[in-house]
């Protein structure tokens, strides 16, 4: 199955400072900024576009339960995940399972932009958090 880079997720401690850097230093445009309090997300998210390439800035809103807060505590701020767009998320999940890899079922969701996503288990990806996603409604 074809996979293309969709975006890179970056864990940040101060979202306003990160947005300022992306806009004033990298020349980015902010596409959206929103807050998700969904269990397993608990983050403020800013979607930045630099010449057609997307970065999601992820700032924890709950330092107890947010996976982004856990990530920052364990590894520090920086690249959290790399997302690959696939044509069909369900088929891509079946494909990786057939290859003996695991997905993190509790991360499967649809975000506010209609993007369906799931994370592969980092134990099977040499420690890198990989997201598979699709946009079934265009």
Automatic annotation (TrEMBL):
Region forming the signal peptide: none
Pfam families found in the cross-reference section: Glyoxalase_4
PROSITE patterns (alphabetical): VOC
Annotated VOC domain residues: 4-135
Stretches of the chain forming a coiled coil according to its record: none
Keywords annotated in UniProt: Metal-binding
One biological process term in Gene Ontology: L-methylmalonyl-CoA metabolic process
Alphabetized GO MF terms: metal ion binding; methylmalonyl-CoA epimerase activity
Keyword check for Heme: no
UniProt xrefs under InterPro entries: Glyas_Bleomycin-R_OHBP_Dase, MeMalonyl-CoA_epimerase, MMCE/EMCE_epimerase, VOC_core
Family per similarity comment: Belongs to the methylmalonyl-CoA epimerase family.
Name of the featured protein: Glyoxalase
Organism encoding this protein: Halobacillus andaensis
């Amino acid at each position: 199955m074809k996979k293309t880079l969709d975006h890179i997720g970056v864990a940040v401690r101060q979202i306003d400072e990160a947005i300022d850097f992306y806009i004033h230093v990298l020349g980015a445009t902010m596409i959206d900024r929103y807050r998700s309090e969904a269990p397993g997300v608990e983050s403020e998210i800013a979607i930045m576009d630099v010449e057609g390439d997307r970065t999601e800035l992820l700032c924890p809103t709950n330092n107890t339960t947010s996976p982004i807060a856990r990530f920052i505590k364990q590894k520090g701020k920086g690249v959290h995940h790399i997302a690959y767009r696939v044509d069909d998320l369900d088929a891509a999940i079946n494909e990786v399972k057939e290859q003996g890899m695991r997905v993190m079922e509790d991360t499967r969701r649809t975000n506010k932009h209609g993007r369906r996503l799931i994370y592969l288990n980092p134990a099977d990806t040499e420690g890198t958090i990989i997201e598979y996603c699709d946009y079934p409604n265009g």
